[in-house]
Amino acid sequence: MKIAMLSTFYPYRGGIAQFNARLYNELSKSHDVRAYTFSRQYPSLLFPGKTQYVVDAKDAEKVNAVRILDSVNPFSYWKTGKTIKTWNPDVLFLRYWHPFFAPSLGTVAKMLKKDVKVITLVDNAVPHEDKAIYKPFTHYFTKQSDGFVAMSKIVENDLRRLAPKVPCLLKQHPLYNHFGEKKDKIKMLKKYSLATNKKTLLFFGFIREYKGLDILIEAFAKLNDNYQLIIAGESYTDFSKYQYLINKNPNKERIVLLNRYIADEEVASLFSCADVCVQPYRSATQSGITAVSYHFDVPMIVTNVGGLKEDVRHEKTGLIVEEINATAIVDAIVYYFNENKRETFQKGIRELKKELSWKAFCEELLEFISNLKK
Q: Which residues form the Glycosyl transferase family domain (predicted)?
């Protein structure tokens, strides 16, 4: 089968590019796959971080993708569609995570849909920052796919509402396996000037309003001096309110703040420090952070929102907190450590890993594609 993948790849950074590279590598083992990506992904003025690109490429997964699609240049939409069509693929595989990309990706899909099966893996059918202006973009895009893939029930439900006649495969996010192995915990704690005899909490990933970092900082203020917190990730919002909460926090001396993009080669170091990863989200679809955390056998404490509650199996691989507030987060953290849940949850994670391989993900994806009728 000839599969054209159009999405974000190296040299662009981030979890979606990493996922796409893993998927590309697995599919390439048994099929002819070509990758196409953006010549311009976001205009600089619209990108919330410092850079869209991989800074240190030594550990990045480099996929030889054709850089052709300019997200804001309609002439490139036509050029991209024509280029892919010339290769004559059986399948066009897209990745959709924000309505900003609906015109570019949707137009290419529309050009090829007559002759090619168009499959879209959807991260967010409805964006976290839901605005009325996004609705026509989403409506336009969802009309162009022959099949969807969702990695959480909330996204599947949104897709069934937006495009009820389009088949949808629900499959949990496979585990990332390209960050290497865990490192010596004591050495890594010392690397970040952390105590070696305290309980270490980790907040990891891009910082956005919906991810509830402020809730975790407030919760940390209520914990005793047996705890320490790592905040690791670049802020995609105004960080001043978080800095204010840190500055007035009575436990601020035990907070390590890494407000920057975390390169792939550093991920293992941070998760090797962690006793538990905390995601106090206000809303969510699914999170690639869970897949990273499980790779390193680090249990999760998450709020009961979106797909987080599907990825974390309560009292088996982590804890699901019903209320989204600092007190509930504190209660879960204290319970986790007082009841010595780490080893039990790590055992559950190791069992879950067997189900969440890239091979298993791709086998179901390919079966789904083969059963689709044009």
A: 187-347
pLDDT at 57: 59
CA distance 291 to 288: 5
Are residues 298 and 271 in contact, defined by beta-carbon separation less than 8 angstroms? Answer: yes
- 229, 349: one domain: yes
* CB neighbourhood size of 324 (10 A): 16
**192 Cβ contact partners less than 8 Å away, ≥ 6 residues apart:** 230, 256, 269, 270, 273
pLDDT in tens, 54-64: 876 565 678 99
Residues of the chain with pLDDT under 70: 46, 56-60, 128-131, 285
Give me the pLDDT at residue 128, please.
Answer: 63
Q: What are phi and psi of 69, to 5 degrees?
A: -90, 120
Range of the structural domain that residue 146 is part of:
2-174+357-371
Joined together, the tokens standing for residue 266 give 């550093």
Q: What number of CA atoms fall less than 13 Å from residue 212's CA on the CB side?
A: 22
Contacts of 368 (CB under 8 A, 6+ apart): 119, 147, 149, 167, 169
What stretch of H or E contains 119?
Answer: strand 117-122
* CATH number, domain containing residue 147: 3.40.50.11930
CA 87/CA 279 separation, integer angstroms: 43
Give φ, ψ of 64 to 5 degrees. Answer: -80, 75
pTM: 0.78
Do 87 and 4 touch, CB atoms closer than 8 A?
yes
Please give the structure tokens belonging to residue 50: 């410092």
**Which residues face 40 on adjacent strands?**
70
The two structure tokens encoding residue 305: 């929102």
Tokens of 212: 């509830």
Residue 240 lies in a domain: yes
pLDDT, tens digit, 9 for 90 and up, residues 224-263: 999 999 999 999 899 999 999 999 999 999 999 999 989 8
**What was the pLDDT predicted at 146?**
97
Contact criterion met (CB below 8 Å) for 69 and 108: yes
